[in-house]
From TrEMBL:
<dbReference type="InterPro" id="IPR014541">
    <property type="entry name" value="Amdntrnsf_FN0238"/>
</dbReference>
<protein>
    <submittedName>
        <fullName>Arginine deiminase-related protein</fullName>
    </submittedName>
</protein>
<dbReference type="Pfam" id="PF19420">
    <property type="entry name" value="DDAH_eukar"/>
</dbReference>
Length: 293
């Protein structure tokens, strides 16, 4: 197991009631969807009753969508996660959004090459940069292939936690938003590469918020900027918000409304709010005349 955030969940799952944990997780997912909808964010919530897919609450690992009608399907490190890829979700997206091209990298699993979507990569859609912390879940070959196909500049770096363990997913240590970025810079051991990452994040006038290892371990880096009816919101867990300083929150609130949600059970499984969301960057199909929507 290379997800250092997941230990507590494994311990509780083995010693406690799995059904109770599942019910709590379902409640938290439903609560997140309701909070986003209340903020004016369009939400598509998909049920999954397959008990062999306990991590399907993290769809961003197998699916990404992109402007211009493009979708990426990704190779997953854990064999039991590979059947999380669902054709019904792809069919839904094709029906309701303009999809021109689906690029499927899942065949790379046969060669033990993995790239777990926007968990392994944090994408700066505006500057077209793909940030990735090298790990078994973020292979440089797959990253290069994705960047070539989708038109991103790869920004690969090494990152380790306080125990010297490689950061398993980039999105637990970095968030890129419109007016700011949050990053656990201290987790990048190379001073040269750390400076390059910081400078790239700051390009274009974006404010860079440095997160401490303590904040990272409490999922402060695992946030996502979304578009609501009245402006942008930053969705993150209440646990993560509790670790941010007043100064950090002030920077965020200059361009976003903070939207904290309680997801303690989900966080035991090794991910937080950002991991629970696969962002949609596709154009909607027009609703035919006379059809309700």
């Amino acid at each position: 197991m290379d997800n250092a955030f997941q230990t507590a969940f494994q311990m509780q799952a083995h010693s406690g009631d799995r059904q109770t944990l599942a019910a709590a997780a379902r409640h938290e997912v439903t609560g997140l969807a309701a909070a986003l909808e209340a903020a004016g964010v369009t939400v598509h919530l998909f049920e999954d009753h397959d008990e062999t897919r306990p991590d399907s609450v993290f769809p961003n690992n197998w699916l990404s969508t992109h402007a211009g009608g493009r979708i990426g399907i990704f190779p997953m490190y854990a064999p039991n996660r590979r059947h999380e890829r669902r054709s019904d979700i792809l069919d839904f997206l094709k029906t309701h959004y303009r999809v021109q091209d689906v690029i499927d990298y899942s065949g790379l699993e046969m060669d033990s090459v993995f790239l777990e979507g926007t968990g392994a990569m944090v994408l700066d859609h505006g500057a077209r940069v793909a940030y990735a912390a090298r790990s078994r879940r973020a292979d440089p070959v797959a990253l290069e292939r994705f960047c070539t196909n989708f038109g991103y500049e790869p920004m690969l770096f090494d990152a380790v936690d306080v125990n010297g363990t490689a950061v398993y997913h980039t999105n637990v240590m970095m968030t890129v938003a419109t007016g700011f970025a949050m990053v656990g810079a201290d987790l990048i051991p190379s001073a040269v590469r750390r400076r390059e990452v910081m400078e790239r994040l700051a390009a274009g006038g974006r404010t860079v918020i440095e997160l401490s290892p303590h904040q990272i371990s409490n999922f402060a880096g695992n946030a996502i900027e979304l578009q609501g009816v009245e402006g942008r919101v930053l969705a993150l867990s209440r646990r993560a918000l509790g670790t941010l300083t007043a100064e950090q929150k002030a920077v965020i609130e200059r361009s976003c409304t903070l939207l904290p949600v309680d997801v303690p059970t989900i966080e035991l499984a090794g991910g937080s709010v950002r991991c629970m969301i696969a962002g949609i960057h596709l154009d909607r199909r027009p609703v035919p005349a006379g059809v309700g929507g």
